[in-house]
Write a structure and sequence with these properties.
Helix content is 55%, strand content 13%. By secondary structure, the protein is α/β, with parallel strands linked by helices. It has a nine-stranded mixed sheet. Strand 2 (19-23), helix 1 and strand 3 (42-47) form a beta-alpha-beta unit. The longest helix has 19 residues, at 232-250. It is globular.
Length: 332
């Protein structure tokens, strides 16, 4: 049964007298560190002195130090920088200042699950993972609300690891909305699966396949783009707001009938079997090994594939059509 924690379950005083070192000041690092500070937590942001984020963090009113100094001073060390950098930064800049009784906090379980970060046995290892981007975490906090989060305990040396995690979740505003208990393995494997099969990989390939099918059948690329890509946001927003039922209630009867009768023709049993294969590669570590090696080799495969993706005709057509949509604003 799912266990959800709220404000009354979390005690912010657990962090009283402790320093939280947030390593990184990107989307999550910026949002979480500012929320913690505004909750009365003693926060220092660890950054490269020559990095672009150093001045940005200072302008936001944060205390800033080098990664080494912040990690050495922190009782709780939050890894809020890209996963592929965790191993190098941990071994060179964080591990030397890691003393017994400290807490390592992650917002994603990849580095712990796949042994990119291997903490000593005398520290706590926890996860607090907001289910929204850092800008939303910050905005909801300033509006008196919060973004739901996940919490997990991988290693409880102190006997108080969960209390620390709940206090941290309260500090960033997550317990206002709800904090769902999970495990490092469940969070990591389900997150990777969602990205690869639906949210990123699945959606991008489905959209391209629809575009290609229409264009190859003689339809104008502009019309194809509108029908299989541009209108996707409308459908996703409806599902986000109220689930599949709300989406089906909101679209036309024709669209609703086409949904329930033709959807399974596209996402058939073969596709579901392929999803299981992708999940197996995540579960057995094959994907993680591939991604780790790709980064160690400076991403040659990834860069080549991205180049090919950016050259797809739909990207050119989409850029031309988006230029006709002033409500989108300027996007990089």
């Amino acid at each position: 049964m799912t266990h959800v924690y709220y404000e009354s379950d979390a005690d912010l005083s657990v962090l009283k007298g402790k320093k939280v070192a947030v390593i990184g000041f990107g989307s999550q690092g910026g949002g979480q560190s500012q929320n913690l500070r505004d909750s009365g937590v003693d926060v220092v942001v660890g950054l490269r002195p020559e990095g672009k984020s150093w001045q940005k963090a200072k302008e936001a009113g944060m205390k800033v130090a080098s990664v080494e100094d912040a990690a050495a001073a922190g009782d709780v060390i939050a890894f809020l920088f890209p996963d592929h950098l965790h191993a190098d930064v941990y071994n060179k800049q964080i591990k030397p200042g890691l003393k017994p009784g400290k807490t390592i906090l992650m917002s994603h379980g990849f580095s712990i699950l796949y042994n990119q970060v291997v903490p000593p046995r005398d520290v706590d290892v926890i996860m607090v993972a907001p289910k929204g981007p850092g800008a939303l975490v910050r905005r909801m906090y300033t509006e008196g609300a919060g973004v739901p989060a996940l919490i997990a305990v991988e290693q409880d040396y102190s006997g108080h690891a969960k209390a620390t995690g709940l206090a941290y979740a309260k500090g960033i505003g997550a317990s206002r909305a709800g904090v769902i208990e999970t495990t490092f393995r469940e969070e990591t494997e389900s997150d990777l699966f969602g990205e690869q099969t639906v949210l990123c990989g699945g959606v991008s390939e489905l959209v391209k396949a629809g575009f290609d099918t229409l264009v190859e059948a003689g339809y104008q690329p502009e019309i194809a783009y509108y029908e299989v890509c541009n209108e996707l946001k409308l459908i996703v927003d409806l599902i986000f707001e109220g689930g599949m039922h709300h989406m089906r209630y909101s679209v036309s009867d024709t669209a609703r009938y086409g949904d329930i009768t033709r959807g399974k023709v596209i996402i058939n049993q073969a596709v579901r079997e392929n999803m299981k294969k992708v999940l197996q590669d995540i579960q057995n570590g094959a994907f993680a090994r591939e991604w780790i090696l790709e980064n160690q080799a400076n991403r040659p495969g990834m860069n080549s594939l991205l180049y090919k993706e950016e050259a797809h005709p739909m990207e050119k057509v989409g850029a031309q059509l988006r230029a006709m949509m002033p409500w989108l604003g300027k996007k990089k």
